[in-house]
Design goal:
Blueprint lengths: L10 E6 L2 E9 L5 E4 L3 E4 L5 H12 L8 E7 L4 E6 L5 E4 L6 H7 L12 E7 L2 E7 L1 H5 L15 E4 L1
Parallel strand pairs: 6-10
Antiparallel strand pairs: 1-2, 1-5, 3-4, 6-7, 8-9, 8-10
Length: 161
């Protein structure tokens, strides 16, 4: 999970080798920070597991010079995509690896018979504005215009009218 960027809602397992009092589950708060004994508060969201491990080691080594810190992701709750509208199982789905629009539709049980699958939109928030990306299921289904079957990002919403 070296390339995985931590997000609010993720649950981490943090431990310091040979220090039984310095281990446990840590939740990344909505503000992106965590609290850990001897390290205090630090920003976790947006960092990889490796980066966070180094940050924690620097802080803990002020008190335990030869500390070895281990961080692992226990539960990925912060990275989610949403599929809403005329699908069989609308809802939110974990984004544990790369997933494209067709795969998200599959997770949602596919479109209902009343769905307008050639007017699907992907809503993506970027900073303080939102963009709408069109998706025409019929084209992709026939192997055409495959470039619109984009990889989804955390927080994306697939809207099936």
């Amino acid at each position: 999970m070296d390339g995985y960027l931590l997000r609010p809602g993720d649950v981490l397992q943090v431990s310091v080798w040979k220090e039984t009092d310095l281990q446990g589950e840590v939740l990344i708060r909505p503000d992106g920070a965590i609290s850990f004994a001897l390290a205090g508060e630090l920003q976790a969201a947006g960092h990889t597991v490796g980066e966070l491990t180094k940050l924690l080691e620097v802080r803990v080594r002020k008190y335990i010079p030869d500390a070895v810190v281990t961080v692992s992701v226990k539960t990925i709750l912060g990275n989610r995509v949403y599929v809403i509208g005329k699908v069989n199982r609308p809802g939110d789905f974990p984004l544990s690896g790369p997933i494209d629009v067709m795969q998200a539709l599959s997770l949602a049980g596919g479109a209902t018979p009343f769905a307008n699958t050639n007017h699907i939109r992907v809503l993506r928030r970027s900073g303080d504005h939102e963009i709408s990306i069109p998706f025409h299921y019929g084209d992709v289904e026939r192997g055409r215009r495959l470039d619109q079957n984009i990889l989804l990002q955390s927080g994306d919403t697939v809207v099936v009218p």
